[in-house]
C-alpha cells in the first residue's frame, strides 16, 4: 500500500520495452523501487486448454507459437512425448538433424535478444547487426521448412524431410564467429553498457533456486546445470556448459555470448555426423493412429529461456486429457519482484531485459 511519500507506477502493459504485454506495478520512493508486482494474463492464448480438444497431430502445428522465437524446442517436446510413449526410436541421422536445427534456433533466439536488449538501453546499431546475422538463419529455415518462425518441421518419429542446403549452414557457422567478436568489441567493455548492467539485478544462487530459475540465467549465477548434458539427443556431442559467477545483468549478457559459441561448436559436429551417415531413415508414426496409452507423461529440454517441459495426462484416447507446459519466461517474470527491489526506475528495463523474457511463453 502506498503512503504519502511513495508513488505507485504502472510500467506497461503497453510499453515499448516490456517484451510483450506485461504490467509491472511498481512502488517508488522517488526513483527507488520499493516493490514490484508483475501482472500477467493479457494475451489470453489458451494453448494448454486448446490441447484438450485437438488430436495430437492437430495440436502439433500450434506448439511453435508457445515461444515464437524458439518454436523447434516445443515441437521437439511434443514429438518426444509421443515417441517415448509409443516406444519409437529415432534414427541417428534424424537425431542429428534435430540437434542442428535446435541449435540454429537457439542462436537465432539469442541474437534477437542481444539486439533487443541493447536497444532497450538506447543502442540502436547492435540491433541491426544482430538482426543481420539472424536473417541468415531465418532464410535457411525458410528454404528448408517454408517458414521463418513457425516451422512445424519435426513430426512424430522424424522430420518432414531430409535436411538440405548444408553448405548454407557451413557458411553461417563460418561467418558468425567473426561477427560475435564484433559484438563484443562494441558491447562488452562499453563504459555506458557497463554502468547500466554491472552490479545491477544481482541474482543470488539461493534466490534462483527458490524461484525455479533455469537456463542461462541460472548458469550466470554460478550454478552448473545444463539439461543438454543429460539429453539423449546430445549424447554424442562435445560441448561445455557456460557457467559464470557474476550474477548480474552484465554476466547474463556475457553468458549468452559464450553460449552462441558453444552452439556453433555443436552445429559443426552435427554437420560432420551427417556427412558420415548419409542414409536417411525414419520411424514415422501414422499421425491418424496416435493414441497415448493411459497414464502420465513428462519430458523436458534445455530451451533458450531455460528449462521447458511438457506434462500430458492421457486416458488412452487420441487427445490429451490434460496438457501443461513449463516455460522459462514464466519464472523469470516472477523473479522481477525480487531483482527490482532496491534498484532505480531507470534500471528496471535493463534488468528485465537481461532475463530474456517473452510474454507468449508466460501467457500460455
Task: Provide structural commentary.
The protein has a 3-stranded antiparallel β-sheet with strand order 1-2-3. A 3-stranded antiparallel β-sheet has the order 6-7-8. The chain has one domain (44-361): Cytochrome-c3 Hydrogenase, chain B (Orthogonal Bundle). The protein has 12 helices and 8 strands. It has helices spanning 47-51, 56-59, 71-85, 92-120, 125-145, 166-187, 191-197, 205-210, 215-219, 249-276, 328-339, 345-354, and strands at residues 7-11, 23-29, 32-39, 154-155, 158-159, 295-303, 306-314, 322-326. The protein is of the alpha+beta class. The chain is globular and about 65 Å long.
Kindly provide the name of the CATH class. Answer: Mainly Alpha
Low-confidence stretches: none
State mean pLDDT (0 to 100 scale).
93
Question: What spatial form do the alpha-carbon principal axes imply?
Answer: globular
For the record, give the distance between the C-alpha atoms at the N and C termini, rounded to a whole number.
30 Å
Kindly identify the CATH topology: Cytochrome-c3 Hydrogenase, chain B
CATH architecture: Orthogonal Bundle
The proportion of strand residues reads 5-15%
The number of domains is 1
Radius of gyration: 21 Å
What is the topology, as strand order, of the major beta sheet? Answer: 1-2-3
What structural class do the secondary elements suggest? alpha+beta
Overall strand count: 8
Helix content: 40-55%
Query: Order of SSEs, N→C?
Result: EEEHHHHHEEHHHHHEEEHH
User: For this structure, what is the CATH homologous superfamily?
Assistant: Cytochrome-c3 Hydrogenase, chain B
Amino acid at each position: 500500500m502506498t503512503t504519502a511519500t511513495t508513488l505507485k507506477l504502472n510500467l506497461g502493459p503497453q510499453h515499448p520495452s516490456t517484451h510483450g504485454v506485461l504490467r509491472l506495478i511498481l512502488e517508488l520512493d522517488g526513483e527507488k523501487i520499493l516493490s514490484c508486482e508483475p501482472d500477467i494474463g493479457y494475451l489470453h492464448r489458451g494453448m494448454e486448454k486448446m490441447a484438450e480438444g485437438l488430436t495430437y497431430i492437430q495440436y502439433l502445428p500450434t506448439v511453435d507459437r508457445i515461444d515464437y522465437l524458439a518454436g523447434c524446442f516445443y515441437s521437439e517436446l511434443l514429438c518426444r512425448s509421443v515417441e517415448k510413449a509409443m516406444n519409437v526410436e529415432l534414427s541417428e541421422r534424424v537425431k542429428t538433424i534435430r540437434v542442428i536445427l535446435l541449435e540454429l534456433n537457439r542462436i537465432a533466439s539469442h541474437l534477437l535478444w542481444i539486439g533487443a536488449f541493447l536497444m532497450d538501453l538506447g543502442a540502436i546499431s547492435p540491433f541491426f547487426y544482430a538482426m543481420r546475422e539472424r536473417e541468415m538463419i531465418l532464410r535457411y529455415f525458410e528454404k528448408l521448412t517454408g517458414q521463418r518462425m513457425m516451422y512445424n518441421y519435426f513430426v512424430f518419429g522424424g522430420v518432414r524431410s531430409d535436411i538440405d542446403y548444408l553448405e548454407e549452414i557451413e557458411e553461417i557457422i563460418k561467418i558468425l564467429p567473426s561477427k560475435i567478436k564484433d559484438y563484443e568489441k562494441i558491447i562488452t567493455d562499453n563504459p555506458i553498457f557497463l554502468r547500466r548492467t554491472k552490479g545491477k539485478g544481482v541474482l543470488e544462487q539461493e534466490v534462483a533456486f527458490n524461484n525455479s530459475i533455469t537456463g542461462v540465467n541460472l548458469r550466470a549465477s554460478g550454478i552448473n546445470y545444463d539439461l543438454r548434458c543429460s539429453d539423449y539427443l546430445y549424447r554424442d556431442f562435445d560441448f561445455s556448459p557456460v557457467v559464470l559467477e557474476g550474477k548480474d545483468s552484465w554476466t547474463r549478457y556475457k553468458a549468452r555470448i559464450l553460449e552462441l559459441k558453444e552452439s556453433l561448436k555443436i552445429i559443426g559436429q552435427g554437420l560432420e555426423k551427417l556427412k558420415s551417415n548419409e542414409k536417411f531413415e525414419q520411424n514415422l508414426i501414422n499421425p491418424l493412429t496416435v493414441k497415448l496409452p493411459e497414464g502420465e507423461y513428462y519430458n523436458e529440454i534445455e530451451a533458450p529461456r531455460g528449462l521447458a517441459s511438457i506434462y500430458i495426462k492421457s486416458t488412452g484416447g487420441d487427445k490429451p486429457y490434460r496438457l501443461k507446459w513449463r516455460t522459462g519466461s514464466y519464472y523469470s517474470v516472477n523473479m522481477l519482484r525480487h531483482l527490482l527491489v532496491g534498484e532505480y526506475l531507470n534500471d528496471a528495463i535493463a534488468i528485465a531485459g537481461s532475463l530474456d523474457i517473452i510474454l507468449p511463453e508466460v501467457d500460455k
